[in-house]
Amino acid sequence: MRASIGAAAAVFRKEMIETLRDRRTLVVALVLPVVLMPMVTLGVPYLAQRQREHREMAASRVAIVGAEFAPQLLDESVARGLIRLVGVADPIEALRHGRLDAVVEIPTNFATRVQTGSGQVTIVFDESEARSVAARQRLQDAVAGYAARLAEQHLLSRGLSRADLAPIQSTSRSVADQRRLGGTLLAGLLPFFIAIWAVLGGQHAALDTGAGERERLTLDTLLVTPTSRWVLTMGKFMAVTVASLGSVFVVIAVTLVSLRLGTAWGGLAELRRASVVISAGPALWILVVSTLLAAFLGAAQLALSLLARGIREAQQYFTPLYLVITLPAMAAPFLEGWDRSGWTYVAPGLGPMFAIRGLLLGDLPPTLLTATLGSTALFAGVSLLLAVRSLRHDPESPATAGP
């Protein structure tokens, strides 16, 4: 047993030395997360917020068809700078070509229908353009405000007020504190980042220790040694898992630091209301889940790499694995209700993602966490057995070749 552990450690040291010498692994696992994560966590939301603020400040370009039938309909919005009236010969065509944000169509009998309580205007907009969608909302608010003013005039003429029409008012307050808001923010970002870099962090190490060694013919040298296939596989597996796990830890650390700096900077309104802090208990379990996920992916990538006859073939085998992990990570925030289903936490891609989300939100039951840990460990073990089998039945190895 001691000899086997020493042999596995020797293989691990050899693979780690070669991995650290590989610039691609270092760049993907360590450099890219440090460069990309601040851009993704802060840069993209900041640009989106700037664009939204610019869209909210810019006046919507609107043309009115039949303006003479309701001359005061948009006066208040125009005075506030929310809407800018534009005169064009063909409003609908101008809207299609982006020269207008919306068109208001007022029927000829508008005034008569208003007296009977059936007044109606039509707002024409382009659903594919964000500016046009914003213009529709502004016009709907303007029409609702105009209708409210007319209703108030009718009430006053009858000796009533708006309070008589709506004697009850409602207010609201949120029970979510800053930490809960911070957990929600992290739950939307961190599981996806962990999944992506758990896959990318170990891919070059897996390619090099399996298919790469086959192409360099160094795998045959290892296979003729008295060391068992199990020991060789364990050494390679540990090297791939360490590369993947190192990338995951860097991503977690950089994401948290970026968000904390963003909170101090105050450039994002969403961050100003959130406290980006993970308690010690959930943080520990997140690391445990991430470690098992990295082990599962490391074993799966190693098995596929040993199965392939070359690096290019191994990369083709990796593609379905990427999809199994990344697609559930992308879809998890939108799968409402799935977090209450037990089978979700034992699925290869969904389980760790929902477990990490639940830990960040503070609502993950221990039974579901146990299910995720057990299933992910099982998948890692099965993948490791497949890796050993791929190495043991290597058709090109001298140890298994025929006379």
UniProtKB/TrEMBL annotation:
Domain ABC-2 type transporter transmembrane per the UniProt entry, residue ranges: 24-388
Under the cellular component aspect of Gene Ontology, which terms does the record hold? membrane
- What sections of the protein cross the membrane? 26-48, 181-200, 237-262, 274-297, 317-335, 342-362, 368-388
Instruction: Kindly list the places in or outside the cell where this protein is found, as annotated in its UniProt entry.
Output: Membrane
MF (Gene Ontology): ABC-type transporter activity
Domain of life from the UniProt record = Bacteria
The record's keywords, sorted A to Z, are: Membrane, Transmembrane, Transmembrane helix
Membrane protein topology class: Multi-pass membrane protein
- Per the record's keyword annotation, is Membrane included, yes or no? yes
Tell me which Pfam families the record gives.
ABC2_membrane_3 (PF12698)
Keyword Transmembrane on this protein? yes
Q: Which InterPro entries match?
A: ABC2_TM (IPR013525)
Q: Main localization of the protein?
A: membrane
Q: Which PANTHER family match?
A: ABC TRANSPORTER PERMEASE, ABC TRANSPORTER PERMEASE PROTEIN NATB
Q: What is this protein called?
A: ABC transporter permease
What's the source species for this entry?
Answer: Candidatus Segetimicrobium genomatis
